[in-house]
Design brief:
Two copies of one chain form a homodimer.
Chain A lengths: L5 E3 L8 H7 L9 H18 L5 E5 L3 H12 L5 E6 L2 H13 L2 E6 L8 H10 L5 E5 L1 E2 L4 E2 L2 H10 L3 E5 L18 E3 L13 E5 L1 H8 L12 H8 L14 H17 L1 H21 L15 E5 L6 H12 L1 E5 L8 E5 L7 H15 L1
Parallel strand pairs in A: 1-12, 3-4, 3-5, 5-8, 8-9
Antiparallel strand pairs in A: 2-10, 6-7, 9-10, 11-13, 12-13
Helix pairs in contact in A: 1-9, 2-9, 3-4, 5-6, 10-12, 11-12
C-alpha cells in the first residue's frame, strides 16, 4: 500500500480523486475513436490553459524534461546561436541540451533567487545580432522566482529570434499568455499547478517555430521528439491520425480531467487562488521569523523558497514532517541545497487553509 | 466514460484490475523513500523478466520508442558503423534513429513476414569488419515474426560488436534470455505481454554497453536518454539517488504490480501460456480457411498476422468488431496495410478461452 502524503514539495502536487479515477479507467487503444476524442478534448483545453491558438499544441508522452528537449531539438540546428538565460537549475539544463545539439550557446546569468534581468538580455542581443533563439525559464522551480516572460519575449522578438519558455511551474498557476506575449515554444509538466499525475509534458509550438522545424537543413536529432512526425498524430480535425508511438492512454485520461478542472475554474480565478494561498503562506512564515530570500515582487506563488535557520537541521525537519505527519516539502536544489526548503502550493493545494496547514506543520516542526 | 474494450490488437493489451488499482493509488513524491522502494522492486523483478544480472536495468519514463532511441544514442557515436536488420516497420525506425545520430548504417533486409536471415547478417559482418553495433527486432510487431535472437547475437558478438535487441512484443511472452544470449542493450514496452498501462519502456544495459556510453568521445545527444545521468537515479542499493527528472510515479506503481504478476507466474509458464493460446488461435483461424502468411516456425505467439480474404473489406470488419462487440484488432502496418490484420494475445489475454473468443468473433464478423 502506498501511504497518502500531503505534497507540499516542488511537485508532484496532490492529485484530486477525480483525476485518479479518470486515470484508472480501462485502457483502450491509442487509435480507438474514443481515445481520439480524448486527445481532441486535451488539445482544446490545453490551448485554453496556454492562452494560444497554435494548431500544434499537444501533450508529450513523457515528463516535462522531454518538453524542454523537444523545444530545442526541433528549433535549434547545429551552429545556431542560442541565448540562454540562467538563474537556476533549469536554465543550466537548457544549456546542456543545446551543447549536445551543437549550438553556439551564449549565457545570460543572474544570481539564484533573482529573476532574469531584461537589460542583460538586451545587451546580449545587441552583442549577438545573429542570435536565432532566446530561451528562459518563466518560473524557476529551483529558486522560486518568476521572471518577466512578456518583457523578455518582446526583446527577443524585436531582435528577430524565436522564444522558448519553460513554464513547468507556472502553467495554470501564474499568469501566462502564450500568444499575447509572443512565446514560440512553451512546455510544461503535468504534476505541478495542473495537479495531474507526473509523466506528461504539455507543449505548444507557434507557426513560426513549426516553420523552422519543418525547413531545417539537418534532421531533428531525436526521432521521439520530432514535431514533424508528432504533430500529425495529435492534430485535431485531421482526417488521418498518423501513428507515431503508443500514447500513454491512461495518463491522458487523467490529463483530460485535470485540464477540464482548470478550464472550468477559469484561468484568472486559478491564478488568483495560487496568489492568495501563497500570500497567506508568506505572511505566516514571516510572522514566525522565517526568511524568504526572494524579493516579494519576483516571488513565484506556486513555489516558495524558505531559508533554513542556522540552528535547524535541514534533513531532520524534512524527515520528521514525512514520518510523523506524512507531509512532503522540498529540499533545496543546486546552490540552495542544505540552506533552503521549497514549499509548493500548487493546483489542488493552492488554498488558504492548505497554506495554514503547511505553515503550522513547518513551524511546529522547528520548535 | 471510457468503454471497456477487449484489446486484441498489437497492444495495448487488457490491463488487469489489480494493475489499474495500483495505478490509481495516491501520488507521492519521486524521491519519497516509499517510492524508492517501488523502484527497487521494479528493478529487481525486471531483471528477472529480462533474465539478466545487469546492474543498469530500469524502466524509462516514456513509451517503448524512447527505449529504442536510448539504446542507440548511448552506444552509437557519429561515424560508427551500425548494421541494422530490417524485416518490418521497427527495423526501419532503428535506421531513422541511427541516421539522425550520424552513424554509418548498413542494412540487412529480409522480406516482411520472414525472420532476419542469420546468413545475411554473417555476410554483412564479414564485409564490414569494423562494425561497432548490430541491431535487430526480436519480435516484429508489424509482421508477427520472431527472429532467432540467440543466433544473431552470437554472430555479432563473435565479430566484436555490441548487440541491441528490440523486445517490445516479446518480453515475458516469448523466450528471452538477455545474459545467456549475450544481448547488450534490450528494451521493451509496458503495454504488450506485461499487460501494464502504455507509456513505459523497460530497458537493460550490459556492462559493455555502459562502458561504451561512459567512454564516448562525444556527449550523448539526448539529455533525457543519457544513461550516464539516468543510471544513478534508478540504481538500487546506491546510497544517493541523484534527481534526474520527475518519474511517472503512478505508472510505476502499475508497473510494479504487472511485473510482480509476471514473476509470480514464472517466465517459462508465461511463455508457454502465450504459445498455447496462439496455437489455439492459429488452429481456429486455419480451420475457417483463413491464411496466416508467416511460416509456423517463425510465428510470434503474442501477435498473429492474418491475411484478409480478397472479398472482405478490412475497415468494415474492424469497425463492426469495435462498434458491435467493443473488440479491437489491429490493422496491417506498412506493407501489410489493407491486406492483413494483426491479432494480439498478449499478457492477460494469452489464454485458450480468449483465443476462442476472438476467433469466434472474427469468423462471425466475416460471415
Amino acid at each position: 500500500m502506498i501511504p497518502y502524503r500531503d505534497l507540499f514539495g516542488p511537485g508532484p502536487s496532490n492529485v484530486p480523486d477525480a483525476v485518479l479515477i479518470a486515470l484508472a479507467q480501462p485502457t483502450i487503444g491509442h487509435l480507438d475513436p474514443v481515445f481520439l476524442e480524448v486527445m481532441d478534448d486535451v488539445v482544446a483545453d490545453l490551448r485554453t490553459c496556454f492562452m494560444t491558438e497554435n494548431p500544434v499544441t499537444f501533450v508529450m508522452s513523457a515528463p516535462g524534461s522531454i518538453g524542454m528537449e523537444a523545444s530545442f531539438v526541433n528549433t535549434v540546428e547545429p551552429g545556431d546561436k542560442v541565448i540562454i538565460c540562467i538563474n537556476g537549475v533549469f536554465g543550466g539544463r537548457m544549456q546542456s541540451i543545446c551543447e549536445r545539439i551543437g549550438a553556439e550557446v551564449i549565457t545570460v546569468e543572474d544570481e539564484w533567487g533573482t529573476p532574469v534581468d531584461p537589460e542583460k538580455l538586451s545587451d546580449a542581443l545587441k552583442a549577438n545580432p545573429d542570435t536565432a533563439v532566446v530561451a528562459f525559464v518563466h518560473a524557476e522551480t529551483s529558486t522560486g522566482v518568476r521572471s518577466d516572460a512578456k518583457t523578455l519575449a518582446a526583446l527577443a522578438k524585436d531582435a528577430g529570434c524565436l522564444v522558448i519558455a519553460d513554464t513547468v511551474t507556472s502553467l495554470s498557476g501564474v499568469e501566462l499568455r502564450v500568444d499575447e506575449w509572443q512565446l514560440d515554444v512553451v512546455y510544461s509538466g503535468s504534476q505541478k499547478c495542473l495537479s495531474c499525475v507526473p509523466g506528461l509534458a504539455p507543449i505548444t509550438f507557434s507557426p513560426a517555430a513549426i516553420e523552422k522545424a519543418s525547413q531545417r537543413k539537418s534532421q531533428v536529432p531525436s526521432w521521439f521528439c520530432d514535431t514533424n512526425l508528432l504533430a500529425p498524430y495529435y492534430m485535431d480535425g485531421e482526417s488521418k491520425r498518423a501513428y507515431h508511438h503508443t500514447a500513454p492512454v491512461n495518463s491522458l485520461f487523467a490529463m483530460r480531467e485535470a485540464l477540464r478542472l482548470a478550464v472550468d475554474e477559469g484561468l484568472p480565478a486559478r491564478w488568483a487562488r495560487h496568489t492568495n494561498a501563497a500570500e497567506q503562506l508568506w505572511k505566516r512564515l514571516e510572522a514566525a521569523d522565517l526568511s524568504l530570500p526572494v524579493a516579494l515582487e519576483h516571488r513565484l506563488a506556486p513555489l516558495t523558497v524558505v531559508s533554513i535557520p542556522s540552528n535547524v537541521n535541514d534533513a531532520a525537519v524534512r524527515e520528521r514532517l514525512l514520518q510523523t505527519r506524512s507531509i512532503e516539502i522540498g529540499a533545496g536544489l543546486g546552490k540552495f541545497a542544505g540552506n533552503a526548503w521549497r514549499i509548493g502550493l500548487m493546483g489542488a493545494n493552492a488554498a488558504i487553509e492548505r497554506a495554514d496547514f503547511i505553515a503550522d506543520a513547518l513551524i511546529e516542526s522547528l520548535g
